[in-house]
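Q: Start with the shorter request: fold the first protein.
A: Done. Sequence, then structure:
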Amino acid sequence: MNIIGRLTRDAQVRDLSNEKKVVNFSIATNESYRNKNGERVNKATFFDCSYFLSPNVAKALLKGTLVELGGQVSAKAWMDKQGQPKAGLNFIATHIKLHGKANTLIQDTREIEVYEAVEIKNEDVPSNESGHDDLPF
């Protein structure tokens, strides 16, 4: 699945227990359409995203950056502190493509060379080890 959206906050790098690092960030996607009455409706969908390949990509994932992500989406549900049910969408990114002026935000020339390639692939994403899809079709 591919999604395109803007980062809602700067990416953060977190250490995992297995000595690996994960880059966490969130994006908002926008959908615009006309309803039955001809009125323009704008709808935003928010995704919490994770990327496991390289923590260095976090330097380019800044609030407002337009990105195209490839990967898999999953839903999550939880109870908040007041006991109210909440739900959200997770996206495990396997590919990140930066759009717009993101390359100009990187100051170190070594990093610019990396990001000029634009597409970053993640081969180290946790897989569905059971071999069964959750899709009903």
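Q: Next, the second protein, separately.
A: Sequence, then structure:
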Amino acid sequence: MEKTTQLSVTMGNQPGQLARLCRALAHARVNVRGISICDASDVSTIRVIVSDPEAAMRALREAGLPYIAQEVLVLELKDEPGQLERIAVRLGDCGINIQYAYGTGDAGKGKGIIVLRTEDSDAARQCLA
């Protein structure tokens, strides 16, 4: 389990906006390691986990893209039924709310990656340790 910085960028929900964000990161030589896009008709919130959060924040500022930096937890789980349930139950038992989550799996490697945003990353880490 790793605690890392996630950058959330709210942009107009129109063609070319994701390219604009990715261009700014690519020019700063920052790799996108995780992404989630949530839309609300006219705007989208793009959440990214990147290789170098500090360089990404500089690049976003220079590109005029407002962002919010937040702590998230990145968990590697076995690719088998019940793994996410186990995490959700444990956090619930500790009284920690999961605000949102996103992830992916690689069945060929037998693992999945889940990104969790909670109200208190340190307490969540302690609960899951």
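Q: Describe the second briefly.
A: Residues 17-27 form the longest helix (11 residues). Residues 13 and 65 are 14 Å apart (CA to CA).
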